[in-house]
Amino acid sequence: MIVLLIVIVITFSLPYFQPHGILAPAYSVLGSRSTPYNVHVWASQHGLLASYWTRLYQYIFQLVFHFNLGYSYKQELSVRTIIALFLPRTVWLALSALILTVIIAVPLGIFQASRRNTAVDYAATGTAFVLYAIPTFLLCLLAIEIFGFHTLHLPISPPEGIAPWAIFTDPTAFILPVGCLTLLSVAGISRFMRGTVLEVLVQDYVRTARAKGCSPLRVLWHHSLRNALGPIVTILGLSIPALFGGALIVEYVFNYAGLGLQTLNAALEFDVPIVLGITILVSIFTLLGNLAADVALGIIDPRLRIQGNK
Predict the structure, then answer these.
(1) What is the Cα–Cα distance from 39 to 28, expressed in whole angstroms?
(2) How far apart are CA 290 and CA 82, in angstroms?
(3) What is the CATH number of the domain that holds 96?
(4) What single string gives the DSSP state of each residue in 22-58?
(5) Nearest to 292, CA basis, from 232, 238, 246, 228
């Protein structure tokens, strides 16, 4: 809650540093009619002339008790309405990429650790480094060029005006955006998984299991995997901002009407309330992901338990 409060205060204060300060919405709405008198009247009608502390209290109160993230004067809609419209589409995109990342990255990292310093390990490591370093927009453009125009002829953009569940009705249209977002995450998670498993394989209990005659496969999957999953669960819980950041570029390149595309358009149009509202929302998701990771760690690792006072 303290972290969330700090985020709220920062996001509330940022509009004061834009051109025209807190009166920027008045100049944007009035346009050529933005005389000092008209700006003063408009700002007075919308409560922009109140003191900083009064507006901060009202902002926190509205956010906490009514989840009011502000109002977009450019689109003439509340930020909550805009988020409710585009958030499900981005959630399906990010969730699909996260599931595929876990399915691919975890076994790949374990396989690399079991075949360390071999040709297969070097090839996978080199590929991961390339994917990790390549800019998101370049990967998306290469995917469109290769798989959209020359080889598989996949759709290069999901249908316009799609519903949140359209990913199930027309899955081929989402292969390229989901695939690009997945590849960006697999590169980092697989490398981290490989390093974590290698650290576990040199522990005393692993050597003891080998000395007792356990097969290499049992040592790897039964004794090493569960202990190596702890850091991975933490990384996955904190990967929500990275998924959202990647989705922002992926949605823009593939023209996918999601929250990332809406954020980028709002930033280009200086629609500050939308950008700040989405920032708070992503912060909440990040904190929830961190909390879920802590709970999952207690389930996976029996050594971690929250002891209450007896």
Answers:
(1) 10
(2) 26
(3) 1.10.3720.10
(4) GGHHHHHHHGGG--HHHHHHHHHHTTTTS-HHHHHHH
(5) 238
Both 132 and 201 in one domain: the answer is yes
Query: 258 near 41, Cβ under 8 Å?
Result: no
- Asked whether residue 57 is domain-assigned, the answer is yes
Give me the domain span that covers residue 60: 2-68
Specify the pLDDT at position 190. Answer: 83
pLDDT of residue 161: 62
Gap between the Cα atoms of 266 and 260, Å rounded:
10
Question: Which tens digits make up the pLDDT trace of 225-271?
Answer: 767 777 777 777 777 777 777 778 888 888 888 888 888 888 887 78
Q: Evaluate whether residue 203 is within a structural domain.
A: yes
- What whole-number percentage of the chain has pLDDT above 90? 0
Is there a contact between 7 and 283 (Cβ–Cβ < 8 Å)?
yes
Nearest to 30 by CA among 21, 41, 39, 22: 39
In the three-class reduction of DSSP (H, G, I as helix; E, B as strand; rest coil), residue 69 is classed as coil
Question: In the structure encoding, which two tokens stand for residue 277, read together?
Answer: 């509202």
> How far apart, in whole angstroms, are the C-alpha atoms of residue 296 and residue 310?
24
- Count of domains for the chain: 2
By C-alpha distance, which of 48, 73, 72, 44 is closest to 58? 48
